[in-house]
Amino acid sequence: MKQVHVAVGVIFQNDAFYLTKRADNVHQGGKWEFPGGKVETGETVAQALQRELQEEVAIDVLACQPLLIIEHDYGDKQVKLEVFIVDQFQGEPTAQEGQQEQWFSLEELSEIDLPAANTAIVEKLNQHFAS
Ligand SMILES: Nc1nc2c([nH]c(=O)n2[C@H]2C[C@H](O)[C@@H](COP(=O)(O)OP(=O)(O)OP(=O)(O)O)O2)c(=O)[nH]1
Ligand SMILES: [Mg+2]
Known about the structure:
The chain contains three helices and seven strands; from the N terminus they run E-E-E-E-H-E-E-E-H-H. By secondary structure, the protein is α+β, with helices and mostly antiparallel strands. It is globular and about 40 Å long. Magnesium ion binds at residues 36-37, 56.
């Protein structure tokens, strides 16, 4: 099965993380996600991140730091998530596609329904932001 390459942005501001809810009718529907999407042909992952965050939540990424790369097999789909922390951006993230949106604390990220691949992201964030 072909692997889908995805750019994912962990939007972080004032000790909180901005997530949107995936529509019910799509892959991993109804779960909270970090905004992002597929890297298109001819695009770098950084360009994909910039484009997807503009399309989905209308922010301009000013800087991003790589956090981790996750390869996960959902059975019906194989994904490679390249995850970046986005803590410098212009604009206020706002869901552009009618998605539910919410800012969560680090503690809350462990309690909400996320795609299985995201367990590794939350673990890494716990290490990264441990105080
Ligand atoms: N954006 C995002 N995708 C995730 C996360 N965790 C996770 O397993 N995924 C998976 C779900 C999807 O199979 C894939 C993302 O692809 P997508 O369907 O949202 O791609 P896209 O935004 O380009 O959407 P589209 O053009 O197909 O409508 O990655 C996450 O935290 N954020
Ligand atoms: Mg998407």
